[in-house]
Amino acid sequence: MLLLLGLCLGLSLCVGSQEEARSWGQSSEQVGLRVPRQVRLLQRLKTKPLMTEFSVKSTIISRYAFTTVSCKMLNRASEDQEIEFQMQIPAAAFITNFTMLIGDKVYQGEITERGKKSDDRVKEKRNKTAEENGEKGTEIFRASAVIPSKDKAAFFLSYEELLQRRLGKYEHSISVRPQQLAGRLSVDVNILESTGIASLEVLPLHNSRHRGSGRGEDDSGPPPSTVINQNETFAHILFKPSVVQQAKIAQNGILGDFIIRYDVNREQGIGDIQVLNGYFVHYFAPKDLPPLPKNVVFVLDSSASMVGTKLRQTKDALFTILHDLRPQDRFSIIGFSNRIKVWKDHLISVTPDSIRDGKVYIHHMSPTGGTDINEALQTAIRLLNKYMAHNDSGDRSVSLIIFLTDGKPTVGETHTLKILNNTREAARGQVCIFTIGIGNDVDFRLLEKLSLENCGLTRRVHEEEDAGSQLIGFYDEIRTPLLSDIRIDYPPSSVVQATKTLFPNYFNGSEIIIAGKLVDRKLDHLHVEVTASNSKKFIILKTDVPVGPQKAGKDVLGSPSPEGDGEGDPNHIERLWSYLTTKELLSSWLQSDDGLEKERLRQRAQALAVSYHFLTPFTSMKLRGPSPRTDGLEEAHGMSAAMGPEPVVQSVRGAGTQPGPSLEKPYQPRIKISKTSVCGFRREEQVFSNIMKFSFSSFLGLE
């Protein structure tokens, strides 16, 4: 009954509701009674802004995804009303454009340099590092504006990302959280892979914060109304539920992620090289190689804060991981609090007895004391260095630390920079550190930099999530190293401005990606040489790849694209190169301790981001307008948000006049952008202007 009532209200069919509610209110005032709850609900629904359309369109070309979100709202109230647009985007994405239509006025976003002086006006304070309002691996973009009575507003947000291969799959996740039943709702995804699509699946709608919620009656297979069409190289996925189908999934609007996973066909050998208009991308993902032996030290926080479920789940996960170790692997276990407790003072071979003894040691760990992160890492590195120094077998192996904590350093060395320096000097690039942070109190910025500076990865686990399953999933990504010391070379006379070409390790199911510019666009062949180590062998692969003259085709995105380097056609490989290069510059900036070097990296990253319209810590968004709406207005490209190396708050300044005389009072809403990165700081700046309020935050849980 409530569903039918809501649908009627959404279609504005309850004509007499206001008069009825008014008569109820008048009679209640006369007799001193409260307005009945049903009437208050009816009044509230009647005036709530109506979402007439929520649509997402994505085009993925060779793993590079272009996504545009369109949201249209109607203010049904008899007075001006503030309307908020909110969208979760992947943390690794760059927003490239934002456009807002209010009535017949257009506000267009523009990416510009962010002045260094703004840093001096910014307040910096410790924050809870983003646990309050976002999902894992996402950031939230918010924009709000005051809409005149009975008027409409439309929001267009675009972003780009390079999909990462994990466990043999690429994953494209789209947030579908309209917060109400939308008149028209659709997710439209096109995938184009020239080497061929090997596998493709659409998962049930998934809400990572509350497992099992946000799903329909059938938890297996794609969401209801999903249509999949594909051939060898192209796939089209359309999710277009009616209002009734939306209500069956969630009565108050769909809340979940629409997730597509796929993989591509690939030939063994040198990999797949694609060239377009003077730019190239090289995908390298070998398989069917014998795994390298692992030297792994598990470092587990056993301080008092780990008491209860966190420690129990972590122990259970380590039991599973120990059973997964291979006979050629070696391992040890360290528990740390204010004391460092080492299971064995040397690495142990994997045998049934050693696995059993390791499990017993883990089982008897008890939570107590503080958190000495520095000494725990130093002890683990010493164990690995000692083994490598005395290993005379000649076998090449990979040395890893899997480090798990739920807190900040409280005992011993507690200064972050000192811990980072000590770890870097001890590891000397020979030990890769993979970190996992559990809960809301962890110093995630420290863990992120520890992994970044020591050839590892980092993951975050929320309080309400299963730490054990997250740990196992993280380990699965690195359980099978296939190559080490990978170097990919191209002739300097043929290639310039290539992205990173040296990689410490390659794990099964992942992928190495290099992009660069060709010196001569008319080049017929590109010489490629790959060298790497695999167990007892040293691998060298050489080949000349044909790269005949190629030109971009028509715009498959169906919307304006940045021009490709001297050509009128869009170039997804050029954008992929700019994306990777910007990411690497931001990463280098974060790692550098040299002031002059940091400034040089900042300037390069800023210039590239402005050129390709990426919103980064070194760029900001200005809103131009208002300008009159034109009939041919297309959905705009997007303002881009990167998970920058440091939390940043960028100000957005409008350069227009007031929207018009239709408003009852002068329209002076606030403009605000805030970005809280996993670094754990929040920079905030607020500007009063003639546009709307912006907010961009990186949170890890949507409320």
Automatic annotation (TrEMBL):
<dbReference type="InterPro" id="IPR036465">
    <property type="entry name" value="vWFA_dom_sf"/>
</dbReference>
<comment type="similarity">
    <text>Belongs to the ITIH family.</text>
</comment>
<feature type="domain" description="VIT">
    <location>
        <begin position="35"/>
        <end position="161"/>
    </location>
</feature>
<feature type="region of interest" description="Disordered">
    <location>
        <begin position="208"/>
        <end position="227"/>
    </location>
</feature>
<feature type="domain" description="VWFA">
    <location>
        <begin position="295"/>
        <end position="478"/>
    </location>
</feature>
<dbReference type="InterPro" id="IPR013694">
    <property type="entry name" value="VIT"/>
</dbReference>
<dbReference type="InterPro" id="IPR050934">
    <property type="entry name" value="ITIH"/>
</dbReference>
<keyword id="KW-0325">Glycoprotein</keyword>
<feature type="region of interest" description="Disordered">
    <location>
        <begin position="115"/>
        <end position="135"/>
    </location>
</feature>
<feature type="region of interest" description="Disordered">
    <location>
        <begin position="548"/>
        <end position="570"/>
    </location>
</feature>
<keyword id="KW-0964">Secreted</keyword>
<dbReference type="GO" id="GO:0004867">
    <property type="term" value="F:serine-type endopeptidase inhibitor activity"/>
</dbReference>
<dbReference type="Pfam" id="PF00092">
    <property type="entry name" value="VWA"/>
</dbReference>
<dbReference type="Pfam" id="PF08487">
    <property type="entry name" value="VIT"/>
</dbReference>
<dbReference type="InterPro" id="IPR002035">
    <property type="entry name" value="VWF_A"/>
</dbReference>
<feature type="signal peptide">
    <location>
        <begin position="1"/>
        <end position="16"/>
    </location>
</feature>
<keyword id="KW-0646">Protease inhibitor</keyword>
<keyword id="KW-0732">Signal</keyword>
<dbReference type="GO" id="GO:0005576">
    <property type="term" value="C:extracellular region"/>
</dbReference>
<protein>
    <submittedName>
        <fullName>Inter-alpha-trypsin inhibitor heavy chain 5</fullName>
    </submittedName>
</protein>
<keyword id="KW-0722">Serine protease inhibitor</keyword>
